[in-house]
Design a protein that fits this description.
There is one protein chain. Helix content is 59%, strand content 10%. By secondary structure, the chain is mainly α. Strands 1-2 form a two-stranded antiparallel ribbon. Helix 1 (3-20) packs across helix 6 and helix 3 crosses helix 4. The longest helix is centred in the N-terminal third of the chain and has 18 residues, at 3-20.
């Protein structure tokens, strides 16, 4: 596999993940990509600021602020004033997972993966292929976590 193939695979996996993600029952629907990226960064860097998240992720600061607001509303993160600069807020994962976090964590990618593996003619994927791909994704998830890729 070369870099382009790895990049395209990553994009395909992001699309599968987005399709599998349950939409919030309240609040505005929309792309979850920036919210997931921001939450992943907050989990890896608790006590961080919007500016620091923007610098690490490459997302615009306004997009990070919006994602943090959505995450705070969902109960996924807590914020508090930064003692060093009261104009900034420190962001950390919520102490207790919210109902939304529990819902997202409980949702599998099975249906989205099956849809992605469905042939162009609409033929259902071979069950052995689905099992092999699922096993490969489980291995990747165990070995290429955000903490590993941040190195």
């Amino acid at each position: 596999m070369n870099g382009v193939e790895a990049f395209l695979l990553g994009r395909a996996l992001m699309k599968i993940g987005e399709q599998a993600m349950p939409q919030p029952k309240s609040g505005p629907p929309g792309s979850v990509r920036s919210v997931v990226v921001v939450l992943g960064d907050v989990v890896s860097h608790p006590g961080t600021t919007v500016g620091e998240i923007a610098a690490r992720t490459g997302l615009p600061q306004s997009q990070v602020s919006t994602a943090v607001a959505r995450l705070e509303q969902a109960g996924s993160v807590d914020t508090e004033p930064d003692p060093a600069d009261r104009r900034r807020r420190l962001i950390r994962p919520a102490a207790e997972p919210s109902a939304r976090v529990a819902e997202v964590r409980a949702t599998t990618i099975d249906d989205a993966l099956t849809a992605a593996l469905t042939g162009p003619d609409g033929a259902a994927p071979d069950p052995d292929t689905v099992r092999e791909v699922t096993a490969a994704l489980d291995l990747l998830a165990r070995t290429l976590t955000p903490a590993v890729t941040a190195r």
